[in-house]
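We now fix the convention by which a protein and its fold are recorded. The integers have meaning only within a learned vocabulary of local backbone shapes. The record below shows the convention in full.
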Amino acid sequence: MNFTNFSNKYWQSRNQPLVYRHRTALDFFIESLRDKGIKGVGADFSRTAIEKCKKKGLEVYLLDVGQKNIPIENNSFDYVVMLDVLEHLLCPEELLLEAKRISKKYLIISVPNFSSLPARVQMAMGRVPENNKKNKGHAFWFNYSVLKALLKDHDLNILELKVNTFWETKPIIGKLFRRLALWRPSLFALSFVVKVKK
């Protein structure tokens, strides 16, 4: 099954929950969008996802993110936002370069952490970690070191990193794990959201 078919099947049976990575990415720029009256435009390669968005009144377009040249002019958008996208591609650098090209200045990217402590424990117990199961459609596995290296290789600078971690809602242990997640993100973070500058 190719990835487009996988994605269409995925969206037929569910709606995208608003998870930490999405909420955090929105926090980076949503207020400036409102204050400046900036319009947002969405794109996806799943016809099913596009239909769901259009029913909600959103402006979205079908876009093959695997193609080398996205039919959008250079420097078209103030922000290019890719939430849970890069990990689904065999060659994420191709889309990253296109996102850089069409962005005037900033990118916001979220990816799950494939080498978090819970994933390592699951592997040590002989289980496939949750993010690595085939029903997720993940083709490229990120941790913070991999993400940083990919961005650095393409002259993209991380301005801000936000992470979430396990037990972060617990009063004392949550505070500890939030600090650990910023200290050693590839081990203690569950996902990363970065604001990046060209």
